[in-house]
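Is this the right way to post structure tokens for a design question? Let me know if I should format differently. Anyway, here goes:
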């Protein structure tokens, strides 16, 4: 298993990405599907899912 939480740079603009959470949910577990990745620069984002799922989606974008 790879526990690395590092996010690649944005495939659209090269900006830094970060994890955000849907604040409608109070649970904060990484396994709870409330997370998404968003680019700090251009605002590109993934669908909402668990941390491992959004990381994989983000990092696989080309
Ligand atoms: Zn971007």
């Amino acid at each position: 298993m790879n526990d690395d939480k590092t996010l690649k740079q944005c495939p659209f603009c090269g900006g830094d990405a970060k994890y955000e959470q849907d604040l409608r949910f109070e649970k904060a577990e990484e396994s709870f599907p409330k997370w998404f990745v968003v680019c700090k620069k251009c605002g590109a984002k993934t669908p909402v899912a668990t941390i491992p799922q959004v990381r994989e989606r983000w990092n696989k974008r080309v």
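Format looks fine. Someone answered above. Worth noting: Residues 51-60 form the longest helix (10 residues). Helices lie at 51-60.
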